[in-house]
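From the pipeline queue, job 12 of 40. The input is one protein chain; the requested action is below.

Action: predict structure.
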Amino acid sequence: MLEIRKVYTAIEETRIEGGKKVEEPIKMIMTLAVIKNPWAGRGFVENLKPEIDEFAPQIGDLLVSELFKHVNSADDVEAFGKAAVVGVDGEIEHASAFIHTLKFGNKFRNAVEAKSILPFTNKRGGAGSTVMMPMVHKNDDSQRSHFITFEATIPDAPRADEIVVAIGVSTGGRPHPRTGNRHQDMVEMGLV
């Protein structure tokens, strides 16, 4: 049985960047679930698939449902990402297990009507570890304007036997982007 100790949501809204007003404020939202690591205390578990198959879809459903309490519709989402942090008694593979399966990722991708591959981080850490989430444009992962990162922390998570699993979105790219794009570079360099 999936044991969820808490759900946490972080929201940031940027209104001014570089001293210049952002015409349409950009909101970044990350929703995180703190779950009991189902492999904690069991030694090395060779086959993680039973727990992945059972819990990944549940975690995906939960996080999407919580995220959409703060997002009106898929049309509001321009960028997205995912992350996981396993407590110090767990393996990096445990952090990866729930986020690197279509049984989790497609719940999120479908909800925000996206085509891009979800960027990610997965790491080990103690309570209060930063959950660092890279994001890309949901339908064109080469748009540099949407190469953004959002961070959040939960002061008491993950505990040694827990995993923090997170998804996040942004309603826009970076404020006032001026670094061009990959397609433009390729044309200028004669690569297309």
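Job complete. Strands lie at 4-17, 20-36, 79-86, 120-124, 131-137, 148-152, 162-170.
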